[in-house]
Amino acid sequence: MIVEMSQTADADEARALQETLAARFGAVHTVWSATGRLVVCHSAGDDAEPGEVAGLAGVRRVVTSPGPYHLAARALRPAGSRVRVHGVEFGGPGFVVLAGPCAVESTDQLARSAEAVAGAGAALLRGGAYKPRTSPYAFQGLGVEGLRMLGRQRAVSGLGVVSEATQPEEVAKVAEHVDMVQIGTRNMQNYALLKEAGRCGRPVLLKRGFAATAEEWLCAAEYIMSEGNPDVVLCERGIRGYGRETRFTLDLAIVPVVKRLSHLPVVVDPSHATGVPELVVPMTLAAAAAGADGVIVDVHADPSAALCDGGQALLPDDFKALMGDLERVLVACGRELERP
Amino acid sequence: MIVEMSQTADADEARALQETLAARFGAVHTVWSATGRLVVCHSAGDDAEPGEVAGLAGVRRVVTSPGPYHLAARALRPAGSRVRVHGVEFGGPGFVVLAGPCAVESTDQLARSAEAVAGAGAALLRGGAYKPRTSPYAFQGLGVEGLRMLGRQRAVSGLGVVSEATQPEEVAKVAEHVDMVQIGTRNMQNYALLKEAGRCGRPVLLKRGFAATAEEWLCAAEYIMSEGNPDVVLCERGIRGYGRETRFTLDLAIVPVVKRLSHLPVVVDPSHATGVPELVVPMTLAAAAAGADGVIVDVHADPSAALCDGGQALLPDDFKALMGDLERVLVACGRELERP
Amino acid sequence: MIVEMSQTADADEARALQETLAARFGAVHTVWSATGRLVVCHSAGDDAEPGEVAGLAGVRRVVTSPGPYHLAARALRPAGSRVRVHGVEFGGPGFVVLAGPCAVESTDQLARSAEAVAGAGAALLRGGAYKPRTSPYAFQGLGVEGLRMLGRQRAVSGLGVVSEATQPEEVAKVAEHVDMVQIGTRNMQNYALLKEAGRCGRPVLLKRGFAATAEEWLCAAEYIMSEGNPDVVLCERGIRGYGRETRFTLDLAIVPVVKRLSHLPVVVDPSHATGVPELVVPMTLAAAAAGADGVIVDVHADPSAALCDGGQALLPDDFKALMGDLERVLVACGRELERP
Amino acid sequence: MIVEMSQTADADEARALQETLAARFGAVHTVWSATGRLVVCHSAGDDAEPGEVAGLAGVRRVVTSPGPYHLAARALRPAGSRVRVHGVEFGGPGFVVLAGPCAVESTDQLARSAEAVAGAGAALLRGGAYKPRTSPYAFQGLGVEGLRMLGRQRAVSGLGVVSEATQPEEVAKVAEHVDMVQIGTRNMQNYALLKEAGRCGRPVLLKRGFAATAEEWLCAAEYIMSEGNPDVVLCERGIRGYGRETRFTLDLAIVPVVKRLSHLPVVVDPSHATGVPELVVPMTLAAAAAGADGVIVDVHADPSAALCDGGQALLPDDFKALMGDLERVLVACGRELERP
Predict the structure, then answer these.
(1) CA A232/CA A84 separation, integer angstroms
(2) Chain D residues within an 8 Å CB radius of C325
(3) What is the dihedral of CA C152, C156, C159, C165, to 10 degrees?
(4) In chain C, which end has fewer C-beta atoms inside a 10 angstrom radius, N or C?
(5) Chain D residue nearest residue A43, CA to CA
(6) Considering CB atoms only, which of A191, A211, A215 is closest to D166?
(7) Where are the beta strands (DSSP E) in chain D?
(8) What pLDDT shows up at residue C311?
(9) Is D137 on the interface with B (CB under 8 A)?
(10) Are residues A162 and A304 in the same domain?
């Protein structure tokens, strides 16, 4: 249950309301939002009569949610929410293409990739400076130096940049250099990291854990949002399956499923899901047709020399061709490419 | 390995070739095709040098295939194959919409559904007369009476009809009344049924088993094709997954995966995959964008009264709206609705 | 809901009861059993008050079941059922080891395997005469000749024999030569085959489909039982999973799960589940400790020459060692090896 | 490839060797161990001839490993490794039972649980002070206060205690109060946490991610070990599956699979895997028979009042009965209960 306070409520009224609710429901969780102060009663309180609460002083409205998440629930914002990143909007009519190399490897590599994705019409540049790798002996990213390279390409290309934080300590550093902080699939239930992302002041791209349910994913978003950050964009990136032809099983139906459960924008990562460049093109188009709000695509100027996941990256020319196909599908669906 | 004989080869040459191959590779499997006689050397023979065979008398060409299937392999027909059903073509530029109720329940129900799907522009009418049901006590279909109803609606609507056979004995009966014989997901490895479908003289719609690999699926197609029937259309209908919001996990990436491995057309069943009418629309559009050759959609004039899977059926009006959306996406992809 | 008739009820009373139930619940399904006539009201009737039915003339007792299956439900036989096969009993204190080659290949091969498994103390000999194979070009079994070889080894070894039927037409033939008819994993939802097995007069070993739920599996058993055959033994043989080290994921917890839902005995096939001989030993012991009523183990005198699944077979000496280990675990669990 | 240095090698020789290897293979990773200094050449170097390296000065032996992990590979310690925790040994003939409540809730609750598990013969007491919870509004554990309660019960009961760290900052605190640090399933790929655990000076219990492959799991262990901590015990706790009767699918075959790949001890958590107390008993016995080195079992003096996962906890009396059954199975397998 979410209790939204009236914007005219003052600090005394807020405190009084919290005390009343705490007395009735036990611990309550308070979140400040741009549109007022939200008070989230934890799930245990959901057997309450909303009417009982709606009449309390300072209450603007009461929203009940079906699951264990509240701030992420569709019921809170039935029209859907929009998330702005460096002049680009997720969740509106525009479809956001994030593209770039899996890992930032060098100034030159990043510059060539940035030029390619900007030239083809992508809205945001992505690149990993901190790479969570299965093996401790694999390339782990350039760290702060990589973030600085991203910052420079941001200035050159004019594109907003997105990069991943893999532990709580990295969040502030990443947030300082980039426009959107990514939480990776392995860290979807790294709660300390999620909370830090909830306090970083930047929009967050939250990848689905590769065996997460819709509920677990939305609860992960709730961790971020309950720290006061409403700007979460979800990203489906494939779930573990038995097939051997692709790295993961892209679960496209989760896009409309999650959009019914939540107001948050949803994008799709066809590159990590399939691991096969030839499949990235049809799956990008399918994601657009399924109603996703964007895609995140691996593009590398020289995939065979990539230090991480090169096998799945599109070449610049193939990416450019994809953007043309994508634009036609979007128009057919009443949408358009979001431009930076 | 597939050895394709020259069309000018006579019976003596054919026999001589078979004997030579048998002496070299052990048992060989011979299939007659419209374009000549194909001799399939079983997989054990794939360590042979194709050049060794290509020089034998009566041999037109030798094709090697990477998997345990040969006739279904892309290598045999790199340009893809087309399957015609009552004036409609799968695998060409047209996108085939099969629609209708999950089960034939009555003359009136079928007539109303047929009118709705024909009016909305579907290419083929589907309806089950023999229903494989999880429980022995559930409605098992109207049998021959259902087939006759389909035959009558075929005459009235002008649409070709598709219906399922669930055991070898039913195949000939189904083939007599309908234009395309469906093999269901539970029967994908019912080899006696597949062989019978290979001898029935009708195109076959082969659903993927709900935990089948691409290789197992194509081997099932091979069972049909190795009996002399080249007209197989594959149908992805969702695989078993851990999600609770949908009945199955629609594996859309299997469409381009299978199209790379095989020349056979591939369609998608978003109704059985999701079990949720609201998800059928985005998943149909996504299937089109992913490169599928068609979809099969549950449409029922009165879903709440359906005897089988009513919960997933689209209402006629929703189906009509879907067809409009679909047409726009197809045009954007350089395709068009296949018209009956 | 199951309505069990009094044994003293005569034909007129039976008919009258069926008519009364049909008028109240729609179609009812009648099964004759050794202990009287069971009338199964289909699931739609389960909203009935049992008390309402219990008072009808000729009714001995009324049992309600939680799922869509009735005859297989634990509620019908809370103490569990026992299934006898050639002097061996499943479901009692004894633990039944079925062993032998995956496929019958020759008189000599079968004789050597039978001697090995009999010598090591197995209770039943298994061997496939009809083999459902993924590829149409793979060895499909010796057919009737294989059944005759099994019959001869039955006489020589004194062991009861078990073999698979893969299509309805084969059931009678298999039942004629062997003591127990196996239904394979691919055919768990081949309903025509299940019904034929329900009329064959032999106990049936029903393998779980490799992506079947407990409910689907028990509904498959219900298909057999609703034709009048109460002698069904369930067999867990691994489900499809993402792991690459084993062929399937052995789901041992399904043993106690199914035993709580159903009164039927349950055995485990560690050979097909893992596909790795070294894993067959620990998984056999684990199955015994988990409460299974037996195991079915691939044993081959010369695995490297096997025509089917040789890679997973135990050598006779390894099987003998396993039997010793198994016996100790069984004793620790208060059970013992069932002896032929 | 692992290069083990001679114990007589001095610092100069070590440096020279590292330089030689770095020149030949690029970056090398050095780990100090009790038995000398191990130099791990990263996987990229595995195309090297071991013989080429074996002859270098200061090299005691060279071990090649088949996967991307080296220190965790069986090849390094073919006889298996043993991990000691407060007088108890994992990986030897003894079978270690860790038991206790999922979460530490109060002094009284912990005391009653500790008394119950100690009285029944468990070797180690477990209890969570930091709880990673799906919902941010659920009980998150008592934190340091919980650790202190564990410390007091350690003194009272004499049992070593085990508790989870969920973020890098917590590791040192947890390590200070307990004998073994647990890494939970959600954090199996939280690499910063794993590295911190590798530097904490305590043995680590590493749960398998609920969709992790064997290779990913062993790579996670490698993260810990490559920081110098050789004392890792693996814990299988169920993988995500489609079944609805249990929370997860217990993958018991992974026990012998991982034991072939790695020298590390492996234990099983039947409580989280199944979520059903009645299934904990058979699955504990099955784990023992499958060759596991221990189990970790939820025991709670008053499950209905538990703040976390109470539904899966065993009552003290049921746990005691289980210990009796377990001991008999262990003896049958040539093992015994490890006593504190």
Answers:
(1) 10
(2) 333
(3) -10
(4) C
(5) D137
(6) A191
(7) 2-5, 28-33, 36-41, 59-63, 83-85, 88-90, 94-100, 124-126, 160-164, 180-183, 204-207, 232-236, 266-268, 294-298, 336-337
(8) 83
(9) no
(10) yes
Q: Is D92 on the interface with C (CB under 8 A)?
A: no
What does the block give as tokens for A253? Answer: 């139906």
D50 and D94 housed in the same domain: no
Both C59 and C97 in one domain: the answer is no
The C-alpha atoms of residue B231 and residue B82 are separated, in whole angstroms, by: 8
d(CA A17, CA A22): 8
Å between D187 CA and nearest CA of chain A: 6
Smallest CA–CA distance from B225 into chain C, residue: C136
Q: Check whether residue A207 and residue A272 sit in a common domain.
A: yes
**What ranges in chain B are assigned the alpha helix state H?**
11-25, 50-54, 107-120, 144-157, 168-177, 191-197, 214-225, 254-261, 270-274, 277-289, 316-332
Q: Do D59 and D92 lie in a common domain?
A: no
At D47 the pLDDT is: 57
Phi, psi (degrees; rounded to nearest 5) at B192? -65, -40
Q: Does position A332 have pLDDT exceeding 90, yes or no?
A: yes
Q: How confident is the model at residue D44 (pLDDT cuts 50, 70, 90)?
A: low
Distances (CA, A) of B248 to A55, B283, C211: 43, 13, 12
Hey, what are D181's tokens? 């640090």
Residue environment code for D75-108, b if the CB has 16+ CB neighbours within 10 A, otherwise e: ebbeeebbbebbebbbbbebbbbbbbbbbbbeee
Inter-residue contact D311 to D298 (CB < 8 Å): no
**Which of C200, C4, C174, C8 has the alpha carbon at shortest distance from C104?**
C174
* A258 and A162 in a common domain: yes
A137 shares its domain with A228 = yes
Q: What angle, 0 to 180 degrees and rounded to 10, lies between the N-to-C axes of helices A144-157 and A168-177? A: 20
Does residue D324 sit in the same domain as residue D231? yes
Q: Cα dihedral sign for B300, B303, B309, B312? A: positive
- The CATH number of residue A105's host domain is 3.20.20.70
Residues of B in contact with C238 (CB under 8 A): none
C137 touches chain A (CB under 8 A): no
Give the nearest chain B residue to D247 (CA atoms).
B242
Tell me which of B210, B239, B240, B242 to substitute to probe the interface with D (most D C-beta atoms closer than 10 Å): B242
**B254 CB within 8 Å of a chain A CB:** yes
This model of the complex carries an ipTM of 0.95
Task: Please name the helix (run of DSSP H) or strand (run of DSSP E) that holds residue B268, with its range, or none.
Answer: strand B266-268
> D225, D249 in Cβ contact below 8 A?
no
**pLDDT reported for residue B48:** 60
What mean pLDDT is predicted for residues D318-331?
98
Give the percent of chain D with pLDDT over 70. Answer: 97
Examine residue A291 and state whether it is found in any structural domain, yes or no.
yes
For B85, D63, D67, D194, the CA distances from D218, given in Å and listed in that order, are: 53, 17, 9, 12
pLDDT in tens, D175-208: 999 999 999 999 999 999 999 999 999 999 999 9
In this structure, of A209-223, D39-53, D89-103, the range with the lowest mean pLDDT score is D39-53
Q: Would you say residue B44 has pLDDT above 60?
A: no
For residue D210, the number of C-alpha atoms closer than 13 Å in the C-beta half-sphere is 26
Say which amino acid occupies B271.
S
Boundaries of domain holding B11: 2-63
CB pair distance less than 8 Å for D241 and B242: yes
What is the predicted pLDDT for the residue at D9? 78
Cα R_g (chain B), whole angstroms: 21
- Residue at D250: amino acid letter: L
Please write the tens of the pLDDT for every residue from C105-157.
999 999 999 999 999 999 999 999 999 998 898 889 999 999 999 999 999 99
Q: What is the pLDDT of residues B103-150, one digit of tens each?
A: 999 999 999 999 999 999 999 999 999 999 988 988 889 999 999 999
Q: Is the pLDDT of residue A50 over 90?
A: no
pLDDT at A44: 55
